[in-house]
Specification:
- With 439 residues, the chain is of the alpha+beta class.
- The protein has 2 domains: 186 residues, PmbA/TldD fold, CATH 3.30.2290.10; 222 residues, no CATH class.
- 23% of the residues lie in helices and 38% in strands.
- The protein has 10 helices and 20 strands.
- The strands form 3 sheets. Strands 8, 9, 10, 11, 12, 13, 16, 17, 19 and 20 form a 10-stranded mixed sheet that branches. Strands 1, 2, 3, 4, 5, 6 and 7 form a 7-stranded mixed sheet that branches. Strands 14-15-18 form a 3-stranded antiparallel sheet.
- Strand 16 and strand 17 form a beta hairpin.
- Pfam families: PmbA_TldD_3rd.
- This is TldD/PmbA family protein.
- InterPro entries: Metalloprtase-TldD/E_C (IPR045569), TldD/PmbA_sf (IPR036059).
């Protein structure tokens, strides 16, 4: 993939006319997909795709076009040449872009994470051995993901990350279900077996009579997967410079200094060591960005356009200004003591269908759904019927937060909309003194 990208970049560079500049983004994957139902393979296939995002700039105007690539250098050079001609014809028809800001530095970023992935036949044999007695439904996706960027200013970035993501659910005969996931770059049979054993244990509890709770505030433990849903909501403009500047951020009060979170809460965009490329889709190097430290707002994610529009300093954020490698610092609660410390309350494995019920107050609502368990005196009693929660982030990670776990889980995005995602989050679980259930 890299030689193909370099060839295409060279061909565009050679075709430029005086006064023109270009940027070229590259996105590709070579993925295996396997779909399971009743713990058996129902569908298997491979996806190999690549595309280029060509942008032409001249006299303060810009236009871009996405080109699907074939993998044949001759054909793809011709496609980019045609795209360049179309962009050249389009530019004079456009108005000058007042917020066009280009990084004209000749930066270089190379990151090749090419750890070997498990052979599919060995993985399927392990799954057959470990799950043949379970009603398992899920999808396994694996393979290399490629990202590239180059510009006429001499910038060049290349990123390859091999990863796997096995996302599955286990169903009890009574209709109750739980979700689980095992993802990363280094497949470990023992780690997967441990994850599966934990899911089996929870599945056993789902066979007990379901418990119905009255609306109210309950002590609760939110597992990393549930925290990932909350973190995902914050990524909807929470840290965006554009959203904050226009009053559309859920964290407006935090960044204005009118509210704060618990001192244990330290959040950052942790690009280093993640699966995400160390350069943005706009063509800027990306660095780690401290977002919240000890409950107080620090930096925001600033794209080049927002920097130009609002007089800020860009820090390599993508155009949508959303974290792609969000990291929450751990706390002091050992995972082995979660039930003991919880005492009596809710053990919430997942949250579902989240949305904002009051954006300015960072108030979220959603459902408990999968494997929410009622605990009394540190002992699991049984599953809880689906309940809706409605609570503010300033409560869950503020006044009501008691502790975060010492152990964190690296959660890779399962999104395959258009292509496999490189997004991730690194999160602990959270013990809260009160979570509000509404119905």
């Amino acid at each position: 993939m890299k030689p193909l990208f370099q060839t295409l970049v060279a061909s565009v560079q050679a075709a430029l006319q005086t006064g023109e500049h270009f940027t070229c983004g590259f996105s590709a994957e070579q993925s295996q997909f396997v779909r399971f139902n009743h713990a058996k393979v129902r569908q298997a296939g491979e996806v190999s795709q690549a595309s280029a995002q060509l942008r032409l700039i001249r006299d303060g105007r810009q236009a871009e076009q996405q080109v699907t690539l074939s993998g044949d250098p001759a054909i793809d050079q011709q496609r980019l040449s045609q795209a360049l001609q179309q962009l050249r014809q389009t530019l004079p028809l456009l108005a000058v872009d007042p917020y066009l800001r280009l990084d004209d530095s000749a930066w270089h970023k190379l990151d090749q994470q090419d750890q070997p992935l498990p052979a599919l036949d060995q993985l399927l044999a392990l799954l057959e051995e470990q799950t043949s007695d379970l009603d398992l439904v899920g999808i396994y996706a694996a393979g290399p993901i490629y990202r590239g960027f180059a510009s006429s200013f001499g910038a060049f970035g290349w990123h390859q990350a091999n990863s796997f993501n096995f996302d599955w659910s286990l169903f009890h005969s009574n209709g109750q279900a739980l979700k689980a996931n095992y993802a990363g770059q280094h497949w470990n049979d023992q780690a997967f077996t441990t994850r599966l054993r934990q899911a089996r244990e929870q599945l056993g509890f789902l066979g007990r009579p379901a418990i119905t709770l009255e609306p109210g505030s309950y002590r609760a433990y939110l597992a990393p997967a549930a925290m990932d849903e909350i973190a995902g909501m914050l990524c909807w403009g929470g840290f965006s410079a554009q959203a904050l500047a226009t009053g559309n951020s859920a964290l407006q009060r935090l960044y204005n200094g009118d509210a704060q979170l618990h001192p244990q809460v330290t959040l950052s965009e942790q690009i280093s060591g993640s699966l995400s490329p160390a350069f943005s889709d706009e063509g800027s190097p990306r660095l780690d960005v401290p977002l919240i430290a000890h409950g107080k707002a620090l930096q925001r994610l600033v794209s080049a356009r927002s920097a130009a529009e609002f007089g800020l300093l860009a820090n390599g954020a993508d155009s949508y200004e959303s974290p792609c490698a969000l990291s929450l610092a751990p706390g002091s609660l050992p995972s082995a003591q979660i039930l003991e410390r919880l005492g009596t309350g809710l053990y919430i494995s997942n949250l579902w269908y989240l949305n904002y019920s009051d954006l300015p107050a960072a108030r979220m609502t959603g459902l408990t759904r999968f494997a929410t368990l009622w605990v009394e005196n540190g002992e699991i009693q049984g599953p809880v019927n689906t309940m809706r929660f409605d609570d503010s982030l300033y409560s869950l990670l503020g006044s009501q937060l008691e502790d975060l776990t010492q152990e964190r889980e690296m959660i890779l995005s399962t999104s395959t909309y258009g292509q496999r995602s490189t997004g991730s989050s690194h999160l602990p679980g959270a013990l809260v003194k009160g979570l509000t259930l509404t119905l």
